Structures are given as structure tokens and as C-alpha cells.
Amino acid sequence: MTPESHSLTGTDDPSLGPPPGCPAHGKGPGGVRRLYGPEAEDLGAVYEKLRAEHGAVAPALLHEDVPIWVVLGHGENMHMVRTPSQYSRDTRLWTALQDGTVKPDHPLMPIIAWQPICCHAEGDEHLRLRGAVTSAMSTIDHRGIRRHINRATQHLVNKFCEEGTADLVAQFAEHLPMSVMCEIFGMPDEYNDRIVHAARDMLKGTDTAIASNAYIMDVLTRLTVRRRAEPKGDFTSRLINDPARLNDEEVAQHLRVVLIVAYEATANLLANVLRVVLTDPGFRAQLNGGQMTVPQAVEQSLWDEPPFSTILPYVAKQETELGGRRIRKGDGLILGMEPGNVDPRVRPDLKANMQGNRSHLAFSGGPHECPGQDIGRAIADVGVDALLTRLPDVQLDCDEDELRWRASISNRHLVELPVRFAPRPQQDVMARPAYAAAAQSPSDWQVGRPQPQTAAPEPAAPAAAPTPTPEPAPRPGVFRRLQRWWRGD
Q1: What is the DSSP letter of 33?
Q2: Does 199 have pLDDT greater than 50?
Q3: Per-residue model confidence as pLDDT tens digits over 203-229
Q4: How many domains are there within the chain?
Q5: Position 290 pLDDT exceeds 90
Q6: Region at 64 (left for phi over 0; alpha for psi -120 to 50; beta for the rest)
């Protein structure tokens, strides 16, 4: 491809490349790599091939050979999201949509189609809609939510703790975020298996995705009507009563965006963190030895496996240059969170610890940066730590290479995470937690075989028997963190 090319394929004559639909070598017209099909099952590998061939910004093809740029460089991605004067999220500006290259039945239309929400708005309208969402977010009681996360974790663990086995994706990671978001929205009674299934199903592009979306919208529309008539102190009421004066349709649509994005991202984040803890001895050893806290482990996962791989499209508002490439007005670009996070210019050693560095792309950036990222972090921090405290001997119940993934251009999520552990009795989630696991060192959290355990002691006051020398003060860890959660500190 040359800078003077008028198409992302490097030629205006499609006959010079393989015929449309040919999957040979994963390339389409002009030899441009496809981001779909058999050769793109491992998109991470495709991104690295593109990086080697083209550098930080590369031409590629979406489904049905729609041309688009993939932004692979960390700095280039940050520049794109932070320069709204040059790049927009208003998909109506995309030439491929305007000229019919992207057809109405395109398989990615649900995430491409323009909607009257802050994610696709610009200028004053973006400020109005985004301002209402962030203002409502700012009123969330974070201490209360952390307590709810802990109680919800205990409730979920109670459902399988006596069995000695569980699937931490289906029975934990997919449920905890929805329970928390329903509480934040002020609709705890709507939390059930059906809404969990619908939220995950509507992003899969299945035959039932439209029905699942309709169910979610029905729940949120009814909630909007109830809170318009009877406001309370929840996120939904705050959004309705914001000075921006969103109408019912705008409120319901923004509730949908916040719910689905927060749910999907946090479910993936939980599964990713737990998988690494269960399969990577070095990662678990850092937790065991106190070199890494659970929040730091979450942050490392956001670098290594961002919950969303990409966001698309951004659209060039004018002719410009990015990563040495000539970008024409109306060209579409993919925000590459996954490839940007492994840019060798910022991470020459992918095994290096990224503690204290939050410059990853997991939550995007600029005007469209995720407004609810602190909620996602809290769910992962509290949920993972509380689960490991209840089940300190939890270990993977299959070979690591047996784990299965479901991938799309937007994200890659674990299908299941089977584990086993010593069966334990249920715990009263409303009572002050009984820290039976506190008698064990956090080093009992392990990747390999479980250590022999004695029966969990009944909650009791610390022994007062005198000893010749005082015991050293315990290292602040799980006990004190859970204690702070309970108090809401």
C-alpha cells in the first residue's frame, strides 16, 4: 500500500487480488489480511503479523471484506482517542456506511450502527449525554457497593461450596457483575438467571440475540417508568433527574449501554484474573508472598488480557496521518486495545510486571473513556479476594490446554473454568464474616495440589494464653481487607 492509494486494499482494482470470500492465507483483495474467517481464529497472531508487515497502523478487512485500519501501536491508539478534532465515534461519517459497502445486514451492524447515545455522540450532545452518565456515576455509594459485592460473592459461593467443584465462569464470573449492576440500578429483584443469559447472549450474534436484547430493553424501560414516577437514590433515578433532562428513551438506552458494557467487561475480567491465578505459579506466588495485591493483579490482567479487545469504528473527520499512514476523511479505524497493550515499544518484555502502571488501553481513553471503570475494578478486587478467602485450596480441575475460549473481533472470553476444592459449609452472608480462612496463611492459596487442611474452627476470640515471646503482628492481608469491606472503609 502506498500513501496515495484511494483504498485500504492498496489498489482500486479488486481483480488484482483473490476473489471476494476466498479465505486463502487469510487475505482478501490486494493481499490485505482479513480479521475474520478460518485464518483469523487467533486474532492476536493476526495483529502481530500486521504489525510486522505494516507497523503501528495497518490496513485490514472486516467481515464481507469491508476495509478498515487497525491501530496497533499504543501511542497511536492514545493519540486517536484523545484527538476528537480528527477522529469521531459518529459512525454516520464512515464512508463504508455511506456508500453501502457496509450493508444493513452486515454481521457487525449491532456494534457499527449509530445510536443516539453518548458513545456515538460528539460536541455539545456528547457533553450533555456523557455529563448525565458521569454525574449519576459520581453519586454511587462505593462503600455500600463494596459491601454488596462481598455479600453477593458469599451468596454465590454458598451455592456450590458444599459440592467441592464448580465452574467459576458460569457460577461466579457471569453472575457477580449482574448482581452488582442490578443493585446499582435499583432493580435487585430483576437479577436472575434469565437476565444473566440475555446479557451474554445478545453480544454473541446468535439467533436469539434480538429477543435477548428486547428482554433487556423491556426490563430497563419498565425500570425507567417506575423511577420517573417514584425516584429513589439509585443510579437510574439520578440519571432521570439530571439537569440534562434525558427523555425515557435516552435513559433506557444509556442504562442498556452501561449495563451491558459493565457486565461483559467485568465478567471477562473476573474470569481472566481467576484463570491466571489458577494456572500461573509465578503470578500466584507474587500474591502469596505479598509482592502483589489482588488490585495489582487485576491491573496486570487489564494489561495482559483487556476485557474488550477492540472498539470499532472510529472515523477520520478529515484527511490526516497516523503511524506514518495517510488516513483519508471518512476512513474507519479500529481502536486496538489488545494489540496496543502489547506494543513492543512500551512492553519489550511481556513478562515484566506492570505494577503501578495504569496506562493500558483496557478502558479506552479521551472523551469516550469508560466512566464506570472504578466499579469494574471494585467488583474484581473484592470478588476475587473474597472467593479465594472462602476457598483457599481452590485449584483447576482440568489441564490448562483443555480450557476453551469464545472469540470475536470485540472480545475473547473463557467458556468455562472448572475447579475443585475441599467442600465447605455455607456462610451467613448477612452476618459479620467468620474468618475461618484467616487462620491459614495466604500462601495456602495455591496453583498445584491442595495442602492438607483441618476442619475450620468455630469463630472465637483470639487465645489469651501467655507466651514467652509475643507473636509477630500478622501481615495486613485478607483478614484486614475483608474487615475494611465490612465496615465500608
Answers
A1: B
A2: yes
A3: 766 677 778 888 999 999 999 999 999
A4: 2
A5: no
A6: left
- Do 44 and 172 fall within a single domain? no
In the structure, what pLDDT confidence band is assigned to residue 286 with cuts at 50, 70 and 90? confident
57 phi-psi bin (left φ>0, alpha ψ -120 to 50, beta other): beta
The amino acid present at 137, given as its one-letter code, is M
From 262, 298, 307, select the one nearest 277 (Cα to Cα).
Answer: 298
Residue 173 contacts residue 271 (beta carbons within 8 Å): yes
Q: Where are the alpha helices (DSSP H) in 280-372?
A: 281-288, 294-304, 337-341
Q: Are residues 377 and 257 in the same domain?
A: yes
- Do 295 and 201 share a domain, yes or no? yes
| Exposure class string for 328-364: b at 16+ Cβ within 10 A, else e | eebbbbbbbbbbbbbbeebbeeeeeebeeeeebbbbb
124: enclosing H helix or E strand? helix 123-138
Same-domain check for residues 342 and 420: yes
Distance, in Å, from the CA atom of 73 to the CA atom of 55, rounded to the nearest integer, reads 8
Does residue 426 form part of some domain? yes
One domain for residues 148 and 22: no
The total number of residues written for the chain in this structure = 489
46, 146: one domain:
no
C-alpha cell at 70: 487497525
Q: Quick count: other Cβ atoms within 10 Å of Cβ 428? A: 10
* CA gap 80, 60 in Å, rounded: 18
| Residue 218 belongs to some domain of the structure | yes
Beta-bridge partner residues of 310: 336
Distance CA 241, CA 208 (A): 34
Give the structural domain span for 374: 123-449+476-487
- Alpha-carbon distance of 477 to 87, in angstroms, equals 45
Collapsing DSSP states into helix, strand and coil, what is residue 340?
A: helix
| Residue 156 shares a structural domain with residue 47 | no
Is the pTM for the entire model greater than 0.70? yes
Which residue has 483473490 as its cell numbers? 18
Distance of CA 229 to the CA centre of its chain: 33
Residues 151 and 12 in one domain: no
Amino acid at 448: G
Residue 373: half-sphere exposure toward Cβ, Cα within 13 Å: 18
